[in-house]
Write a structure and sequence with these properties.
The protein has 720 residues and is mainly β. It is built from six helices and 45 strands. The termini are far apart.
């Protein structure tokens, strides 16, 4: 980029470019990725067209990659030195995408001994013994030592010298082709380079040492304008020919001959986008309408034939100098367009009707399937010619695994041309496998040739057949146990039963092996206590999908103070329990069975505070029978129930248990109450505290408190 045409010193590769110096390194040559990234973005935002970076390091930086992508998106060509360590280790930013990585060569077109190499090398440029402008204090004061130095010039070596050659060439190419993108400029630089080392691209020279004369046109240079709208050929049937209007502009230095052994023709290449491989290189030729002199142009109708196989392709229009070279081999960018070649086989399926839910095992369902031919050949119906097209289907299990492929065909009612539709009504018999789920997908088959799905045509949407088991039921339970439940008491349940299986339930008396509702008892730990419990008959037969409600009267075990869990279960008498066939039993119904002994105490009056030692106190105690047997009063039956009490000291320790009784005035049935008036004589212990608690006793049997019945509230006597 040195000043040109002044007879002094050196000149840059480009002619009169504007320079935007952006400092990113400190006096010692050190910097950081953040500063460099910000500088790249700033340069792109302020009009830079080419960025050179004679710097780098071995560490990847996402911020640096993002900045390069930003510049590339703004149309900037980014160039960077490959590094000077004679290693294949990646060197950044040269190794980043959208950066032209530059290696160094010497005057003999050999790799410089210091130059890095590897997969990220795009091109090479002179970088050894480069005579360039220099600043004297920069040379002498900051540790940068040139090979030679004199006045304002010095000789340097390094990929930092090679990279600016490529940046200058990018500016030169851009000035010659102002509408080109960064990709086109890079392609031109690479395609026009002189190949060194192994034939083609290699890891030491990339695509070769740059050649400015070739890059700015030289003899071969052209621009293409595709006049036909790309939308008209973005989808293109296989092995068919289209005409595409193309204007070619001669930006080179020789006249393109229209005829003769070395005529210039318009041709093309087809490249498979999936792997980058050329599937057709030597395309059909289209002659120019006239010879085209430099700066002249010609418009032709190019004849282009599509590839024979379906896929995604790039069509590359390219001029060829017959017997000499393709223009693209001289660095001229091709005119590229993306094209999809669809399969001859294509179809859509619109499915209605189908399976009931549930679907009986071995049952038949009828579908209506509208088929549309979206391919490129006519479907021949059965009987109208060889290789007819029929509708078939495949079975899959619930996990999506194939169960049956080559299933029953349904013939088309007529031939179906491309773009036409037809409706068929296949009848499908589901597998006779109770308790399973099968998935059906329709597929067309060209008999003797291929299934449409094998040609990439999607199958129809999945059609799911839920085939019920022989035994299936749900239980909806209402009503039930009170809480607590009297020992040996009875509760009434309403149970709605729904038949979700394939077997009709026969009621008692209508057929052998009727279905009846029963239940099982479990203890609180979930262990079975009683399995084969009382049956309840169904009021009617129950077919698949139907429901019935039964009323079940359940007597709980006569085990006071226990917890039992009931679960309903259907039984096919003489055959099996439904639960044994995998049908869940009903939700748990819990019976909390109360104790026979239950009482509450409501205590009135009592001790004065303080009270004299040995004095007497009067209480009124209302007793309520919350248990499940009648309390018999003294003299009416064996083992009467009487009110007693216990004495505790001030620390809560028992002092006297078996204290004076007070008789009940009457028998007390469950739920009834009675009031008694016990007279209590206090201990003759001055200056003490005693606590009294009332407790019922069934004489000769048990104290109520030992059966879990709480005593009365404490009554405290503070004795003087």
């Amino acid at each position: 980029a040195a000043t040109t045409n002044n007879g002094y010193g050196v000149t840059g590769v480009a002619w009169n470019p504007k320079i935007m110096p952006v400092r990113v390194l400190g006096p010692s040559g050190q910097g950081d990725d953040y500063t460099i990234s910000q500088a790249i973005i700033w340069a792109a935002d302020n009009g830079a067209k080419v960025i050179n970076m004679s710097l780098g390091g071995s560490g990847y930086s996402q911020s640096l990659a993002d900045a390069v992508n930003y510049a590339y998106g703004a149309g900037v060509v980014v160039v960077a030195a490959a590094g000077n360590s004679n290693t294949s280790q990646l060197f950044y930013p040269a190794a980043l995408p959208h950066v032209i990585g530059v290696a160094s060569t010497n005057s003999s077109d050999q790799k410089s001994s210091f130059s890095n190499y590897g997969s990220y090398i795009d091109v090479a440029a002179p970088g050894e013994g480069i005579f360039s402008t220099a600043i004297s204090n920069f040379v002498s004061g900051y540790g940068y030592y040139p090979d030679t130095w004199n006045d304002s010039f010095a000789t340097y070596s390094g990929t930092s010298m090679a990279s600016p050659h490529v940046a200058g060439l990018a500016a030169l190419v851009a000035s010659h082709n102002p509408t080109w993108t960064a990709d086109q400029i890079e392609q031109k630089i690479e395609a026009s380079a002189d190949d060194l080392g192994a034939a083609g691209r290699d890891n030491y020279f990339g695509y070769g040492r740059i050649n400015a004369a070739n890059a700015v046109g030289g003899a071969y240079s052209a621009e293409y304008t595709v006049n036909t709208s790309p939308s008209t050929f973005s989808t293109w049937a296989a092995s068919t020919t289209k005409s595409i209007s193309v204007t070619v502009l001669n930006t080179g230095t020789f006249t393109w001959p229209q005829s003769g052994g070395n005529a210039v023709h318009l041709s093309y290449h087809w490249v498979n986008q999936s792997n980058g491989q050329s599937v057709i290189y030597d395309g059909l030729r289209t002659a120019l309408t006239t010879s085209v002199a430099p700066n002249g142009q010609d418009t032709v109708s190019a004849q282009v034939q599509s590839p024979s196989s379906p896929g995604s392709y790039t069509l590359k229009l390219d001029l060829v100098h017959e017997g000499v070279t393709w223009f693209s081999q001289k660095g001229v960018p091709t005119a590229d367009n993306n094209v999809t070649v669809p399969s001859d086989y294509n179809a859509t399926y619109q499915v209605t009707g189908g399976f009931t839910n549930p679907m009986p095992a071995g049952g038949t369902a009828q579908f209506s399937v509208t088929l549309t031919n979206t391919g490129y050949f006519t479907w021949i119906k059965q009987g109208n010619g060889a290789n007819p097209v029929n509708l078939a289907f495949h079975w899959y299990n619930a996990s999506g695994q194939l169960v049956a492929w080559d299933c029953v065909r349904t013939a088309l009612p007529q031939d179906v041309a491309p773009g036409a539709s037809v409706t068929v009504t296949p009848s499908i018999t589901v597998p006779n496998v109770p308790g399973s789920t099968y998935i059906l997908k329709f597929d067309l088959v060209r008999e003797g040739i291929t299934w449409f799905s094998s040609q990439g045509v999607p199958l129809s949407a999945a059609q799911t057949a839920n085939i019920p088991a022989v035994y299936g039921a749900t239980y909806q339970v209402t009503g039930g146990f009170s809480n607590p439940m009297q020992p040996g008491g009875t509760a009434q349940f309403s149970v709605t039963l729904t038949n979700t299986g394939s077997l009709t339930w026969r009621k008692q008396g209508t057929a052998p092996n009727p279905v009846r509702l029963a239940f099982h008892w479990y203890n609180a730990q979930g262990q079975v206590v009683a399995w084969d419990c009382v049956r309840t008959d169904l009021p009617s037969d129950v077919a698949t999908g139907q429901s019935v409600t039964v009323t079940s009267n359940v007597t709980v075990p006569n085990v006071p103070g226990s917890v039992y869990v009931l679960r309903f279960d259907l039984v096919r008498e003489g055959v099996t329990w439904f639960s044994w066939q995998g049908v869940p039993v009903s939700a748990a119904q819990t019976a909390n069975i109360g104790s026979n002994y239950g009482a509450t105490y409501q205590v009135y009056s009592g001790f004065y505070n303080p009270v004299p030692p040995g004095s007497t106190a009067y209480f009124y105690v209302t007793l309520t029978n919350t248990g499940y047997f009648t309390w018999r009063r003294q003299g009416t039956a064996p083992n009467p129930v009487r009110l007693a009490f216990h004495w505790y000291n001030g620390s809560g320790q028992l002092v006297a248990w078996d204290c004076v009784r007070t008789d009940l005035p009457t028998d007390v049935a469950p739920g009834a109450s009675v009031t008694v008036t016990p007279v209590i004589t206090l201990p003759n212990v001055p200056h003490s505290t005693y606590i009294l608690r009332f407790d019922l006793v069934q004489e000769g049997v048990t104290w109520f408190s030992t059966q879990g019945v709480p005593m009365s509230a404490s009554q405290t006597a503070n004795i003087q």
